[in-house]
Amino acid sequence: MKSIKIGKFGGPEVLKIQDIEVGKPGPKEVLIKNNSIGLNFIDVYHRTGLYPIPLPSGIGLEACGQIEEVGSEVSLFKVGDRVTHASMPIGAYSEKQVMPEEKLVSVPDGISDEVASCITLKGITAEYLLHRAYPLKKGDKVLYHAAAGALGQILCPWANALGAEVIGTVGSKSKVEIAKKNGCHHVINYSEKDFVEEIEKIVGKNGIDVVYDGVGIKTFKGSIETLKIRGMMVAFGNASGYVDTLDIKKDINAKGLFFTRPSIAHYTVKREELVESAKKVFDAILSKKFTVEISKKYSLKDASQAHKDLEARLLTGPAVIIP
Ligand SMILES: NC(=O)c1ccc[n+]([C@@H]2O[C@H](COP(=O)([O-])OP(=O)(O)OC[C@H]3O[C@@H](n4cnc5c(N)ncnc54)[C@H](OP(=O)(O)O)[C@@H]3O)[C@@H](O)[C@H]2O)c1
Q1: Residues 252 and 276 in one domain
Q2: Do 150 and 257 lie in a common domain?
Q3: What is the pLDDT of residue 81?
Q4: Helices 121-128 & 271-286 angle (0-180, nearest 10)
Q5: How many domains are there within the chain?
Q6: Within this chain, do residues 167 and 186 fall inside the same structural domain, yes or no?
Q7: Substitution site in 143, 151, 156 for ligand 1 pocket (most atoms within 8 Å of beta carbon)
Q8: Domain assignment of residue 132, yes or no
């Protein structure tokens, strides 16, 4: 079967398509034929080595497919079940893969393979950010960066549906309308304007209750500036670079802020958390709290082009790789 492998960290060119033997599932594992694979910024961090992984390695953490074979002690699933996942072991950019059954969730009718493959990692992330990292309340003023991006398409409308006032930033003129369509009440093009000043005009100085910042180094300080006293800074990604220093006195103490740097793994520690979170995402989609529109589809052999486009900020919404 075909699979994308990396032998060294580097640019998109290190993603190589290879013919490999897929292993047999162990006692508590299943073999899945992937029908659609989610493209995520974390795949870029794995590829570049920002988040180091042992090499050589597969890549990709999110996919939806059909179970083809089950191990001798598998009790949760059977052959033919449609499942999705968003976690290690790494290697979703493959026609088939072996996964532990405890990492899988069943996909309900009404949610296609393609949609499932981009709302498991991203949807569960939106769920834990909005409900558990900071339980969003009606009337909260929220700042979300890169609001026309993949996670933005899920998190912003969901925050809107929860009754928050959503302010989104985007990096180009053409993304402004997309962010509005994603449920942002106000959109700022931070390539042209100082987003801190613009936000002050909307909610006043120190007016934001919570910032969800996945852009990282480029926005971090400004995000903190927008927050109210005792506001919540949720730094959850590094699309523009990693924030690896925090000045507790200046950044946190000055306004008595709360700060968290969470990852999806912290919020899906137990299987019940994974299943419950995925159910909330599926229910939100089925009850039309938000709609998922696939922005682009790539073939497996074009995985490096997918990474180029993602890093060049060309994608507006979730993209998938079809094996
Ligand atoms: N911690 C977690 O659990 C978790 C889980 C999932 C995702 N994440 C993080 O969430 C963020 C969004 O992920 P995503 O997959 O939905 O990606 P995305 O938002 O579709 O793409 C990233 C966006 O970041 C913006 N950006 C700003 N500066 C950039 C730069 N120098 N290079 C590239 N992009 C830049 C771009 O939007 P503009 O052009 O509008 O600026 C770009 O479209 C990522 O940081 C990701 O790592 C974290």
Answers
A1: no
A2: yes
A3: 98
A4: 100
A5: 2
A6: yes
A7: 151
A8: no
Q: What percent of the chain has pLDDT over 70?
A: 100
What's the CA gap between 97 and 115, in Å, rounded?
Answer: 19
Ligand 1, atom 5: closest residue by C-alpha: 125
Residues 313 and 252 placed together within one structural domain of the fold: no
| Contact partners, residue 320, CB within 8 Å, separation at least 6 | 36, 37, 38, 39, 114, 117, 118, 294, 296, 297, 298
Q: pLDDT tens digits for 247-283?
A: 999 999 999 999 999 999 999 999 999 999 999 999 9
Give, using CA atoms, the residue closest to atom 30 of ligand 1.
240
Residues with CB under 6 A from ligand 1: 40-42, 121-122, 125, 146, 148-152, 170-172, 175, 214-215, 218, 236-240, 262-264, 311, 313, 315
User: Do 300 and 238 share a domain, yes or no?
Assistant: no
Residues 146 and 250 in one domain: yes
* 100 preceded by a cis bond (ω within 30 of 0): no
Q: CB of 34 within 8 A of CB of 99?
A: no
Nearest atom in ligand 1 to the alpha carbon of residue 122 is 6
With the most atoms of ligand 1 within 8 angstroms of its CB, the residue from 41, 238, 242 to mutate is 41
pLDDT average, residue stretch 141-159: 98
**Do residues 239 and 217 share a domain?**
yes
In a domain, 161, yes or no: yes
